[in-house]
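Review this chain:
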Amino acid sequence: MTTVFTTSSTPTVLNPTVRRLLGWLNLRPEELERTGLLFASYMAFSIGMSWLEASSIALFLGKYGAALLPWIAIATALAGSGLGIIYSRLQSLLPLRKVVVLVPMIIPIVLILLRFGLSIDVELVSGLTFAGVTVFLLKLWAEAIYTIADLNTSITANQLFNIREIKRTYSLVSSGILVADILSGFTLPLLLGFLGSNNKNSLYNIIICSSIMMIIGTVILIQLTDRYRQSFPDAPRKVTTSTQIEVGNRQLKGPLRRYSIILVIFFVISQLLLNLIEFQFFEQLDNQFSAEQIASFLGIFNGFLGIFEIITQWFLSSRLIERWGVFITACVLPGIIVLLGGLSLVDLITPLGGLLFLKFFDELLRYTLVTSVDPVLYQTIPDHLRNPIQTIRGISTPLATGSMGVIILFTLGLSDRYGFTPEFQARIFLFQTVFFGVGWLISIFFLRQGYVKLLVMSAERGQLSGINFDLRAMKQAVIAALENPSPEAEKRSCIELLSQLYPESITEVLAPLLTRFPQELVKPSLEVMLLHPDPQYVDEVKQLLRQPNLQPDVLAVALRYVWLTQPNLDLNQLRSYLRSEVDPTVRGTAAALMLRLGSSQQRAEATHALRRMLTHQRERERVMGCKALGDAQFMQALRIYIPQLLQDRSLEVRRAILKAIAATHLEEYYSSLIRGLYYPSTRNASMEGLVSLENEVLADLTALATNPNKPPLVKLHAWNVIGQIGTLEALDELVLNLTTSWGATRRNILRILLKLPHERGINAVLDRLDGRRGVESLIDQELILIGQIYAALVDLKQDILAIHSPSQQREPNAGQLLRRALRYQHKDGLERIFLLLRFLYPSSAIQAAAYCLQSDHYSNIARGIEILDNTLDIPHKQAVLTIVDRRIDQEKLEALSELMTYAPMLPAERLRDLVALRHFLDDWPLACCFHLAREARWNLTADHTLQCIRHPTDFVREAVLSYLTVASPRALIKLLPMMQSDSAPLVSGHARRLLKRVEEQRRLKEAKSGSE
């Protein structure tokens, strides 16, 4: 039976050494091949780009000097923007897989053409040769392809890896350029020596070597994209980014708009400094060395720089960000730029030495610390606005490059006009470097303020889970918001936020503020402080007790804090609170503390006080008494009142006693908590109590949830409680039952796992099911079941069923019901597939696709298919795209041929095959199978019939009885006496009617035989 749904995927078998290495690299086995191939492709291509950069700058400086570098910056801005537009246009004309291999294929081809252009020494105009123009174009091409190469690698990685995989893999892929810096840096001098370092043709030949390395990287990329063809959409991208930018701009309001503007300014200043430092660095090299020496020096410089970049990126970046926070880490590079620039201005460092250090630290920290900080800065921006803002950054960065070129040209022109010396001109550029460095620091300061403001707003809206934020900056800003005048709602959100981020140190923050808070804020503050009480701050709480007119609920929480943090205090002070005139909230709290911490006599007094409360006529007295029992941790003699309280006429009392049972861990009444799930009035209280008991009730909840005879709604709430418990054992139960369950149960478990905060459910599934391979196996199972449904729809066609109709005029009603039921089960299977896809891909994309596919308009359906085509990379992606499209059943069945083999069957055989799959069918399609067998008079196997007569669903048993009236009247006569006592009225009533009919037929038969 279950072998029908066995998929062909098997886990990768790796030896322990490789598994340890993957663990050290934070990779999963199924990610190894993709990561390794993309890393190798990017590294080979980057080696070629590094050789090209060194040789092109050497040729450019030798031909034109550093004075024309600003024109390169301006031209690069135009070329970079143009190439970006062309790249985006190609995605709308060609499938993405062709685009990502076509672009890196064209780059070395253009490079080879430029190499041959260097050999054409034909004068075009006075003093300008074709080779000279080619040198300018070569330098421009070398600058422009960096952006395209990085963009192409980023897009390829986003297609090959889903959003959760890319967090682990992209840091390794992106380090390919760092490894390339090392290899290219130390091999370039060797290549120059081999090709003849005193020969300008050696630089020309380096260009050919660069092209060869780029071609090698492209070949690896072609193999990778062909091997993982399913990761790329088969159709060109139709959705343009202009619409997204327009929608994004309409929604960028208030703090989000200001933050986005500052974020763009942050990256613009970063790009300005990059170009300014690069110009000064190359100008100093041009003054000191020849072209061949520059190429050799840049090779060695990049090699040593690459070593430090690898060490920093792999071992220091994440640790520094974790220790210092995002914004302090972001300040490191501009701080060093300001420091070194200032030292060079006052002549403490020589110009060449200062610029050498500036260039070294700029390259080192920009591509390690700043790159690592980059994704975090976008985390506060909503998902649907993040891409448009990143697109704006992609446009503004090349413009910043061009702007810096204009600034440099203006400075050079000013120097020539007023006759500034080279030393004074160098000081002007250093002053500009310091100026922009200070501006970069200022932008970080404002960026931090906007960042924290957005985080607080996200916390107020409950949108904070699952994002990576700077905890240090967050804590400082939240404390400042609590200390300064601000609305009560904002302060309440800050308290809740602190309780999530810093539960252990929240008392240190809130205790000094208690006397300054209004009483509406004091109670939630004390409640979160009680989760991690600290005796050092008990004096601040005692000051509250001295305040007059303290609200009873605030007084009660303050009493609990004082006596729980100082259990050796004299409990006799609490006796005054046991008087009947004291508010029940305070009286119950005092009694609970005495019952929990007091001597025998004090416990007796507290027990007597609570007994009066539990038996009081007023509902509030009984409710507060039950809550006090929960705070007391144990009930002692008061447990005799529990049965009476569980039957109390007051709903609030029943809820309170259920919570008290959970708080005091009374195992003999755990069954009462379970029964509370059956009734809407007590369900929430029971769920809250069961969640607090965690693993103690896990076995009982699992037994309830997996019992086929229990009501579906009760089983659903049992699964919900297991999900809210959230322990490792609870997650194990959910994942285990996810793999063994079908239908509604699997759907409910999937929804519960997806709702768990911080993606705990998603990570639990991926960890316990061998990563994405296990999820893909579940998707394949659902596809196979859908394939069986399509096979039934094809074989049980409407015209075939009509032949077996008694009237032979139209399709039997049972046949219509069965086909309709199978259609509904097909929709349920698709829903489960979409839920499973959310474990691998962003929920927003999958939900958007599902929403579009529910439309009746084909344009919306096409949009949904396009979203899936651009998102999915599962092995059977094409099958999913086909079954969600408007195709006939036969075509959809053919699309699933890789997963299941379809063999046409006669209608009666197909119906028997469906009944054989009863464990995977929903209840209603199974019942329809028996109704159709009765109407068409098709025989079903005795084994399947007997098993279904014991089915937990009543209408399935009723359908089997109806079928037996035609198929086996003798067997029916034997079963009817037993079935008339069935617990379901539907079944027992039908059995009694059939038994009555059998009796009437027997009497008529006897009467007829007697008359004869």
Summary: The chain is about 75% helix and 0% strand. The longest helix spans residues 422-460. Residues 905-1012 form one domain.
